[in-house]
Specification:
Helix 10 runs parallel beside helix 12, helix 16 runs parallel beside helix 19 and helix 19 crosses helix 20. Strands 1-4-2-3 form a four-stranded mixed β-sheet. It has three domains: 171 residues, no CATH class; 73 residues, no CATH class; 153 residues. By secondary structure, the chain is mostly helical. It holds the Pfam family BTB-POZ_ANK-like. May act as a substrate-specific adapter of an E3 ubiquitin-protein ligase complex (CUL3-RBX1-BTB) which mediates the ubiquitination and subsequent proteasomal degradation of target proteins.
Length: 511
């Protein structure tokens, strides 16, 4: 609500004038809140506020001096900076130009939200004399409240950002809003949008939305923009254009599968090794974020079938590479090319397996890998220098089983070790020598834990075999003596005994 101020006598008692000043205040939360002293039934002609000049545009000093006289002299650095910002906005305000806009007929006061200790002394406030025809033509709120002719006084209290309110008023005098907004931060635009929405400044709303649609956002700003637009609940046509960059149509499982499959095939077939490694790391990191942010359900619905399609493709490529390696004579082999091909396909397989494990889908691959009898035979027929990258897949699975990240039956665990453990022993030296990516302790711990999950007779068989190998190979063989100690204590020291049957007695109860 806004009350008119028609010219009347200024010789009324002081208490009456104070009451009239309270009555002309218009307060709306988020810029304007209802005034507890304002009676809706009283809208008679009231005298304009003191020092209101309807016949001439005031200077910057005159606009601020009366209001600053009413507030205490703040000593905080924040208040000093606030004064400087207000002075900067008002010094360039177009409503000073009386030749272009005519005489001012509205006294507009903007007051900040009081801070602690300011309830008694009053918060920071500033007044400006502006033009009714501009405010009424640009803002549907002011058009409704400033219908009466003559001088008006409007007071906007408890503002979160006084400077932003002043800037919103200045924008009403401009026909080039887009130019005025250029260079502003997204947070300032959102504040102006909120104010424009509160006072129904439609051109301001439109300009802010067009600005937000055109400028880049940081990820933090992105969340803020979406949150603010949801809160403001503006016209859908305006906000839809802004949010198109972050809100897509609901994706289906087949669409996610299609995109992931296309990206993955591109990665697996990449010719540049450095780019292939970077894109693998990128996709894996993005998928992991999806898993971490949605504990119970992944938003990116990549199907098990898609992942295992890629697994079978990698395994087929591995078999093809090893078959070619066994068919060529030593003199015909290009050692570097052959090593690179096998290493690339083994690395591709490890990447897909990492995704499966991370998405809790790795159980099926353990059985698939344990069943690769043909591949294991081919693996044994070529020199270790060519094949050792393949044993990293076995090590990867043992580490995951040892951590409890993959849960498979004991038959599958034993089949895995039966097929690939000998190969892991043989390749371990080259695995350690080939690069820094191999963590010996991690492999030894994973292998130990995997063996110790098996029935005691199978533990004994595997660990006695390891004992002989370790004596002959030393550091070239995984050191799993901790597992050996645990098995020994289980078998010969602790010797747990568990009753195999429950004793149940059945008897008749006499009537």
């Amino acid at each position: 609500m806004a009350s008119d101020g028609n010219s009347t006598s200024h010789h009324k008692p002081s208490s009456s004038r104070n009451q009239q000043q309270q009555l002309v205040s218009t307060m709306i939360k988020q810029g304007f809140i209802s005034d507890p002293f304002l009676s809706p039934s009283r809208f008679n002609a009231l005298s304009p506020p003191p020092n209101f000049r309807a016949l001439a545009s005031p200077s910057l000093f005159e606009m601020m001096s009366v209001e600053q006289a009413r507030e205490p002299k703040p000593s905080s650095e924040a208040h000093k900076k606030l004064r400087e910002r207000v002075s900067s906005v008002l010094s360039q305000a177009p409503f000073h130009n009386s030749n272009h806009w005519g005489m001012c007929d509205v006294r507009l006061t903007v007051a900040a939200r009081p801070e602690a200790g300011e309830r008694e002394t009053g918060a920071f406030r500033v007044s400006m004399d502006v033009h009714r025809r501009v405010l009424a033509s640009k803002s549907r709120f002011f058009s409704e409240k400033l219908r009466r002719t003559g001088p008006h006084s409007v007071e906007i209290l408890e503002c979160d950002d006084v400077v932003a309110y002043l800037e919103a008023v200045v924008l009403m005098y401009s026909d080039e809003l887009k130019t005025k907004l250029m260079g502003m931060e997204v947070s300032k635009i959102l504040t102006l949008l909120k104010i424009s929405s509160a006072i129904m400044f439609d051109d301001g709303i439109r300009a802010c939305l067009e600005y937000l649609e055109a400028v880049p956002w940081s990820e933090q700003e992105e969340e803020t923009v979406v949150s603010h637009l949801n809160q403001l609940q503006l016209d859908d046509s305006g906000t839809d254009a802004v949010l198109q960059r972050v809100i897509a149509e609901p994706s289906t499982s087949s669409r996610a599968d299609e995109i992931f499959l296309k990206l993955s095939l591109g990665v697996l077939q990449a010719k540049d090794d450095k780019a292939r490694r970077e894109m693998k790391a990128l996709i894996f990191r993005l998928l992991r974020e999806d898993c971490n942010n949605n504990t119970f359900q992944n938003k990116l619905d990549i199907s098990r079938d898609t992942l295992y399609h890629l697994c079978h493709r990698c395994l087929s490529s591995l078999i093809l590479c090893l078959s070619g390696a066994t068919c060529l004579d030593e003199s015909e082999r290009d050692r570097g090319t052959l090593m690179a091909e096998i290493a690339r396909e083994a690395d591709n397989t490890q990447w897909i397996v990492s995704i499966l494990i991370d998405r809790k889908m790795g159980d099926e691959f353990v059985k698939l890998w344990a069943d690769q009898k043909e591949l294991a035979v081919l693996h044994s027929k070529i020199p270790t220098i060519y094949r050792h990258e393949i044993s990293k897949i076995t090590a990867q699975l043992c580490i995951s089983i040892g951590k409890g990240e993959v849960l498979v039956p004991k038959e599958t665990r034993f089949a895995l070790l039966s097929t690939w453990l000998e190969a892991l022993y043989d390749d371990f030296k080259w695995m350690r020598m080939a690069g820094k990516s191999v963590d010996r302790k991690l492999i030894e711990e994973g292998l130990s834990q995997t063996i110790l999950t098996l029935p005691l007779p199978q533990q004994q068989s595997l660990l006695l075999n390891w004992f002989d190998r370790f004596l002959n190979r030393g550091d070239d063989c995984p050191n799993i003596q901790t597992a050996f100690e645990i098995w020994w204590r289980r078998a010969f020291v602790k010797q747990y005994v568990v009753d195999s049957q429950l004793q149940i007695t059945v008897c008749d109860i006499p009537n």
